[in-house]
Specification:
By secondary structure, the protein is of the alpha/beta class. The chain has six helices and nine strands, in the order H-E-E-E-E-E-E-H-E-H-H-E-H-E-H. Helices cover 26% and strands 14% of the residues. The strands form three sheets. The chain has a five-stranded mixed β-sheet with strand order 6-5-2-1-7. It has a two-stranded antiparallel ribbon with strand order 3-4. A hairpin with a 5-residue loop joins strand 5 and strand 6. Helix 2 packs parallel to helix 4 and helix 3 packs across helix 4. The longest helix has 30 residues.
């Protein structure tokens, strides 16, 4: 999750340094309503490291990097919460044990659609939607497994591997379905003509897992292209040029200065080497 030496494990007392400015903080100071949905994974060992203290008006999801898709726990501890500010400005932290049994990809989609549907059009919107899918554990509902991977039959000699592959494909399909619902909500609210959608991954598929990085070598946690080269899609009617593939070298840090430029924010120069995309 953007840390060069690893990611935050349960119980570890560290996080994204507080002197760093997040994209949400930068956009919030420029008048954007900012909402986070899904995975946080930038620190939780003090309240100052949590989303509402890092630029978000609200947050619904998990503080760590992965969880059981139905029980919403990590190492037998529930990690699903709704955060927002009360009328007096204090942070409200609701641990949502009442949602146990709901598939988290669907819940994150529902929350994102709700945010879009209730958005005040007089202010710009920044929605950070970080699905955990298709991160392990590989889980899906029985109905979606039948709907999305019924054509992928298990082989006699690799039934376990085939089931995992079917589940993985279903997880991606359910996420894709959710993204479609988010795009539809933007259109229904007449927001799509003034919206930039960025879809990207943080790394390649796990080497030896049900995903595939072919024809690239290696996978997640390696320095080969299969691990560090991700796919991104940018969609917007505001783009001057569309319908092409950009194969230039870019880095995740480039997104900050890109959105800073789009927001016309000139209050700081980020102390990193980056490129305005």
């Amino acid at each position: 999750t953007g840390f060069w030496h690893g990611n935050i494990k349960p119980g570890e007392e560290w996080g994204l340094e507080l002197e760093e400015t997040t994209m949400a903080e930068m956009l919030q100071r420029n008048g954007y309503r900012t909402h986070g949905v899904g995975k946080w994974h930038c620190g939780m060992y003090t309240w100052q490291h949590t989303p509402l203290h890092r630029g978000f008006d609200s947050f619904f999801g998990l503080y760590l990097g992965s969880q059981d898709y139905f029980d919403h726990d990590r190492m037998k501890s529930l990690d699903l919460r709704m955060n927002y500010r009360s009328p007096n400005g204090s942070v409200v932290d609701q641990v949502r044990g009442d949602l146990k049994g709901r598939y988290n990809t669907d819940m994150f989609t529902e929350r994102a659609v709700s945010i879009i549907s209730s958005h005040d059009h007089s202010r710009p919107l920044f929605l950070y939607l970080a699905y955990t899918a298709p991160h392990s554990p590989f889980q899906a509902t029985k109905s979606d497994l039948k709907r999305y991977s019924g054509h992928m039959t298990a082989t006699p000699f690799q039934s376990g591997a085939s089931l995992r592959r079917r589940t993985y494909a279903t997880m991606v399909s359910v996420m894709d379905r959710g993204i479609g619902e988010v795009v539809s909500a933007l259109k229904q609210q007449n927001l799509s003509d003034n919206t930039i959608i960025v879809f990207l991954s943080d790394n390649g598929a796990m080497f030896g897992g049900p995903g595939s990085n072919y024809p690239l070598r290696g996978g997640k946690q390696s320095l080969f292209e299969g691990g560090v080269r991700g796919v991104a899609v940018v969609n917007s009617p505001l783009l001057k040029t569309t319908g092409y593939v950009n194969t230039n070298l870019h880095h995740v840090t480039d997104w900050y200065v890109t959105f800073q430029t789009l927001a016309r924010d000139y209050t700081e120069q980020v102390n990193i080497e980056n490129l305005q995309l």
